[in-house]
Design brief:
- The chain has a single domain, classed as Tetracycline Repressor, domain 2 (Orthogonal Bundle), CATH 1.10.357.10.
- It contains 9 helices and no strands.
- The protein is elongated.
């Protein structure tokens, strides 16, 4: 399926922003990489800030859409579906040699406390990510895979916070070890019944 111009700009822009940061990424660089004229950018985005806010939605849709794929995979238990979901991203970050890390995490660090619109939007996305993990855990709890004593709202928050921290460490260490520690502690200890 052919991508439309807006999706192409967001996809190519996301790659650059993930590697260089939002402030160090120029509009012309995005357009050159996407191979589209400057008018295309301003047809879809009011400003660079508007592009950044839509970029958050773009990455969020990628994360949440992949979560839905794993939630619906009836070949595995819900807890295994969640583990496979995080393994999918671990494999992705391995293929990039951990370069760039997580777009949402990077934008939160760069802009979360200096731009109110970004802070609000990023907080909404972290909540959506947490809610998606909560869906996995809710089903796992109903299927008696995890203890009924686990507060799944708190557990989901903890899992997303831990995952983002592990991604930062993996980016700096250029290693999957922090992500593997996350996996081991979450699935073999914290959620183990």
């Amino acid at each position: 399926m052919k991508r439309n111009t807006k999706e192409l700009i967001l996809e190519k822009g996301s790659e650059i922003v993930r590697l260089k940061g939002f402030h160090h990424t120029g509009i012309q660089e995005i357009l050159n990489t996407a191979g589209v004229p400057k008018g295309s950018f301003y047809f879809y985005f009011k400003s660079k800030e508007d592009f950044g806010l839509q970029l958050i939605d773009h990455y969020s849709n990628f994360f949440l859409g992949n979560a839905d794929v794993f939630i619906k995979d009836e070949n595995f238990s819900y807890l295994n579906r969640l583990r496979r979901f995080f393994d999918f991203f671990l494999n992705y970050f391995e293929t990039t040699n951990y370069k760039g890390g997580c777009t949402i995490g990077n934008l939160a660090q760069e802009l979360g406390d200096i731009n109110v619109r970004f802070r609000v939007k990023l907080n909404e996305i972290f909540e959506k990510m947490k809610n998606k993990v909560e869906t996995f855990l809710h089903h796992a709890q109903n299927e008696n895979e995890i203890s009924k004593d686990i507060d799944i709202s708190i557990a989901s928050d903890f899992i997303i916070n831990s995952w983002e921290g592990a991604l930062i460490r993996s980016k700096v260490a250029k290693s999957s070890e922090p992500l593997r520690i996350f996996d081991k502690l979450i699935f073999e200890h914290y959620l183990k019944k």
